[in-house]
Amino acid sequence: MITKLFLLALALGAAVSASAQDWAKAKLEKSPRHMEYVTVTNGTRSVLCWVVYPEVKDKAPAVLVIHDSSGLTDWARLTADELAEAGCIAIVPDFLSGSGPNGGGTSSFPGQSELDLALKKLPPDQITGDLNAAAEYVKTLPSANGRLAEAGFCWGGSQASISACHRTDLKAVFVFYGFPPPTNGIPNIQCPIYGFYGENDARVTLTVPPGQEAMKRAGKIFEPVIYSGAGHGFMAHGEPEYPPATPANRQARDQAWARLKDLLKKI
Predict the structure, then answer these.
(1) Separation of alpha carbons 197 and 223, rounded Å
(2) CB of 124 within 8 A of CB of 142?
(3) Is the dihedral of CA 179, 237, 116, 15 positive or negative?
(4) Could you give phi then psi for residue 230, rounded to 5 degrees?
(5) Cα separation of 10 and 171, whole Å?
(6) Which residues touch 4 (CB under 8 Å, ≥6 apart)?
(7) Which residue spans within 201-256 are E strands per DSSP?
(8) Is the separation of the CB atoms in 187 and 219 below 8 Å?
C-alpha cells in the first residue's frame, strides 16, 4: 500500500546537507503551485518523493524526475516545480531514502563524497523498484491522464536510459548529460529518447555518437543535442542565481528548457 505523508514542515526543519541550495529554496517558496512530500513503497522500502502539481483544469501527463548525484536537493525540487509550471505533474523520488546516517535520505548526508559513495552502493534492482513505485503512484493520481515520461540528470540521466529499456509504458525519456542506453537493452525500448549534452563534457558526451549509432541500427529514436561551450550539469549550473553561472551554461540551460517544454507538449 502506498501511503501519502505530508512531511514538508519536517523536511524543511531537518539539517541542511552540503548539497542544499538556498537560492533554489527561495525560488520554491515563491511558487504558487501545490507541492508536497509523499512516500511510496517498494517492497519493504519506504521511498520519500517530492510531488508538484500544475495549475490546469484538465488531467495532466506526469514526469518522473531522476535526480543527479547530489540526490533530492532543493534544485531537484525546483526542477519539478518548473516541470509543473510547464503543465505536468512531476515526481522526484529520493533514491537515497534509508541509505543515510540513522536511516535518513539525501538531507542526512554530510557531504558530496558520502553521497557519491552511497549512490554507487545502490543495488540496480532497488533503483528499478523505486522508479516503478513512484511511476505507479503518479500515474494513478486522480489528476493524472496516465501518460508518463522520465527526465534524468547526470547519474539520473544514465538511470533514465536504463529505465527506457525496462518500462514499455513511457512516452518519452529525456536524458540530461547521462550515458546512452546500454546496448543489450536497446531492442526493448518503446519510446523516443531525447538527449541534452554539454560540449565541454567529454567523459559523457563522447559516448553519444556510438550510442546514437547503436540506436539507429536498432530502429530506435535517439535525438541528442550538444550545447556549445556548456559543461556537465549545465541545467543547474546555468541557473541565473547559481554562483557562478557562466554565459555558456546559462545559454545551454535556456535552450534546453525551451526544447524540453516543446517536447513535453507531444507526450
Answers:
(1) 11
(2) no
(3) negative
(4) -85, 150
(5) 34
(6) 36, 38, 39
(7) 222-231
(8) no
Sequence-distant (6+) residues with CB within 8 A of 244 are: none
DSSP 168: T
Under 8 Å between Cβ of 65 and 90: yes
Cell representation of residue 32: 504558487
- What domains are there in the chain, each with its CATH number? 1-153 (3.40.50.1820), 168-267 (3.40.50.1820)
Which residues in 112-141 are b (16+ Cβ under 10 Å) and which e?
eebbeebbeeeeeebbbbbbbbbbebbbeb
Residues 6+ apart with CB under 8 A from 78: 24, 27, 28
CA–CA separation, 51 and 119 (whole Å): 22
Q: What is the pLDDT along the chain (267 residues), one digit of tens a residue?
A: 333 332 322 232 222 333 348 999 999 999 999 999 999 999 999 999 999 999 999 999 999 999 999 999 999 999 999 999 999 999 999 999 999 999 999 999 999 999 999 999 999 999 999 999 999 999 999 999 999 999 999 999 999 999 999 999 999 999 999 999 999 999 999 999 999 999 999 999 999 999 999 999 999 999 999 999 999 999 999 998 888 889 999 999 999 999 999 999 999
